[in-house]
Design goal:
Elements lengths: L9 H32 L6 H21 L2 H18 L2 H4 L15 H34 L1 H23 L7 H4 L1 H13 L5 H33 L1
Helix pairs in contact: 1-5, 2-3, 2-5, 5-6, 6-9
Protein name: DUF1361 domain-containing protein
Pfam families: DUF1361
Organism: Hymenobacter elongatus
């Protein structure tokens, strides 16, 4: 079992700082585009994306907190924080589905709205992958590589199911506490009667495969870069 005090070594902390700077710049672009649209049109059409971006930051913040925690503290927090992380994790890739809102609107060029939503979707996806990498690393160090990848695959499939629940049934992470019975019934109904809900499993599997392929690509690109550095 890994015995280091923190999940992030000094070089990893420098990499984390660089990541925060890049993500910060990218998020700033999204916020600037949203605010610019409000100022240009005097309408609040896409202001909800600010809230979506905040929710996408929650799992990344939780995984970063766990990574920076001292070993004994991290061991105690991993399970409870991991559960909260899993509840909020779908909010990050969920922003991809905000492309549903894209349509020509008066007062702003179509390409502007396309760029606005794409930058938000990109930020949500990158926050999801960065956060999942943190959590996979923590699981791998405790249980091994196979368990780490199993965790990543399950997390992405569950997040895809969460995307379906949010986009089509309009549930959110808070419904686990505020509306648990309805949420449980709708989930159980789809699990027990999958043939009656083809869209549920179509969305879950398609988005799950897409997210897994994207995540695997990002991981592979990172390893290729590491290999070049060692040459």
């Amino acid at each position: 079992m890994h015995t280091s005090v923190a999940a992030f070594s000094l070089p990893q902390m420098r990499q984390r700082l660089q990541l925060l700077l890049v993500l910060g710049a990218s998020l700033t672009l999204s916020v600037a585009l949203i605010i610019g649209r409000v100022l240009l049109t005097q309408q609040m059409t896409f202001i909800f994306l600010l809230w979506n971006l905040f929710l996408a930051l929650v799992p990344f913040g939780l995984s970063t907190m766990l990574g920076m925690a001292a070993g004994p503290i991290r061991a105690r927090l991993l399970l409870p924080v991991g559960v909260v992380w899993l509840l909020f994790f779908p909010n990050a890739p969920y922003i991809l589905t905000d492309l549903f809102h894209l349509e020509p609107r008066a007062g702003v060029p179509y390409w502007y709205d396309l760029a606005l939503i794409l930058t938000c979707a990109w930020n949500g996806l990158m926050l999801a992958y960065a956060s999942l990498l943190d959590m996979q690393t923590l699981v791998r160090r405790r249980l091994g590589p196979a368990a780490g990848w199993a965790f990543a695959v399950v997390a992405l499939l569950l997040s895809s199911f969460g995307i379906y629940l949010g986009r089509f049934l309009r549930f959110n992470s808070w419904d686990v506490l505020t509306n648990p019975l309805t949420l449980f019934y709708d989930i159980l109904n789809r699990v027990l009667h999958p043939a009656a809900h083809p869209r549920t499993w179509g969305v879950t599997l398609l988005f799950g495969v897409f997210l897994l392929l994207g995540y695997s690509t990002v991981r592979l690109l990172g390893r290729m870069d590491d290999a070049r550095v060692r040459e």
